[in-house]
Amino acid sequence: MTPFELLEPTSLKEALGLLDADDPAVRPLGGGTALMLMMKAGVFHPTRLISLRKVGGLAGITAGADGSLTIGAMTPLAALEHSAEVARLAPAITRTMRRLSNVRVRNVATVGGALAHGDPHMDLPPVLIALGASVRAVSPAGERTLKVEDLLTGYYETALGKNELIATVTIPAQGTRGAAYLKFTAGSAEDWPAVGVAVSVDVDRDTLRDAIVVASAATTKATRLTAAEDALKGARVDDKALKMAGDAGAAEADIISDVRGSVAYKRELIRVHIGRAVRQALAANGGH
Which of 171, 63, 66, 64 is nearest to 115 (CA)? Predict the structure, then answer.
């Protein structure tokens, strides 16, 4: 590992001033779980890391009166796992956290890092997309709001500038919607998934008003599968509709082949897991 400079600003303004929009070797450091692995593997050689651990106001979970959630970017994933407010307002996140890597990683990894890293294998981004979440990003030029689905632009790529940081993540009130996330791992339960499918549904008795379907891990980025969503919208909840949605989503997904499976194998995983995820989301909605 080559030598690098580690700086620890105490304010967001100071942190932004230390970043360099023209130097990719200068990076912010959140939990560091992914960045340190890249450095140890020799695929990233920083000249300067800007630790955000001492920056005030970047951690914490706040529930709004309307049922929304605002989460600071430096909030550890373990805090999501154990938050009573998250369990009440977005229980799909709580369930997801219990199978995300291991407790050591969850204690260190942060919400903002899970998004800013742009790794398609991360469990949290597809769930946040299904829940309609957005991020507030800040830079020396000001701030802007991006939906999580627009933040992720490609394989390990995001819409963030090199001098831009995620400050908060906001999840809108879910109302009566139900959500679920299913993943399949080719190895142990805490291994990187071969596929992940997140679903959010709004149901009226046995009819789906609408659904959000997101695929990850098997794809180049966490991505909404609009063909599957169209197949589910207005459909009666039965095996035929779920099969049609699975077929549509599997055909649409931009799938990558890697050590966890071939394109054909992952396409079949998506086909099967869409229906299963919808069933689980319906159960979370009230047992439909």
Answer: 171
